[in-house]
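re the bet — no i am not wrong, look at it urself. input seq straight from the record:
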Amino acid sequence: MSEYTLANGTTITDADIDQLCTEFESESWTGHLERIHHCPPT
């Protein structure tokens, strides 16, 4: 199982991602999405 380090320093595993997807798809997820916009290089 893979483990990933997020930008805020926390880690998440494949199992964590699967669980979040299941909750999101069943509309039981209570989290918050943040849109991160980036500008193309100039």
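see?? DSSP finds one helix and two strands in the chain. told u. also The chain has a mean pLDDT of 87. so pay up
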